[in-house]
Every structure is written in structure tokens, then in C-alpha cells.
Write a structure and sequence with these properties.
The protein is an alpha+beta fold. The protein has a domain of 58 residues. The protein contains one helix and five strands, in the order E-H-E-E-E-E. The protein has a five-stranded antiparallel sheet, covered by helices on one side. Strand 2 and strand 3 form a beta hairpin. The longest helix has 16 residues. It is globular, with a radius of gyration of 13 Å. The N and C termini lie far apart (42 Å).
Length: 84
């Protein structure tokens, strides 16, 4: 059985099948929000696989894309969740 997606709570361990670079970025994003005293206790991460690559999105619109060729992540923010 192939898993299409997964959700997990902020602060919980990311799925082990994620590349380490993605896991590190998830932890960095959560750490930055904690430093800003943002309450993410009710937020979730959503993992989907697009063309075999993990895409992780946080409830605030933060998105993490992974490039397996460089083993690097890109973090972006959806305009849908802006403060305006």
C-alpha cells in the first residue's frame, strides 16, 4: 500500500521516511516560530508526495519543497495566509 499523504501535529516527530534535510527544515521552522512566541500547539503539518518528491505544508501556509538532486529544501509562504 502506498501512502499518499500524512498529517502530524506541530512538535511531534516528522515521519521517518522523509529525507533528513526536510526533517531538519521542519524543526527549523518550528524553532523559529517558537522563538517568536507563536502558539503552534493546534497546528498541523501535511505531507504530500508530488512526482515522488515530498512537499510539506504547515497550517500557517509555510511550504517546504525538496530537491533530491541537491538534497536541499526551499521554504516558501503562501500569500493566502498573509497578515493583511
Amino acid at each position: 500500500m502506498i501512502s499518499v499523504g500524512t498529517r502530524w501535529s506541530s512538535g511531534d516527530e516528522p515521519p521517518a521516511r522523509l529525507p533528513q534535510a526536510v526533517i531538519d527544515t521542519v524543526l527549523d521552522v518550528e524553532g523559529e516560530l517558537a522563538e517568536q512566541n507563536v502558539d503552534t500547539s493546534m497546528w498541523y503539518w501535511t505531507l504530500t508526495w508530488l512526482e515522488g518528491k515530498p512537499v510539506v505544508e504547515f497550517d500557517d501556509g509555510t511550504r517546504i519543497d525538496y530537491d533530491p538532486d541537491t538534497d536541499e529544501t526551499t521554504v516558501s509562504q503562501s500569500d493566502e495566509y498573509s497578515d493583511e
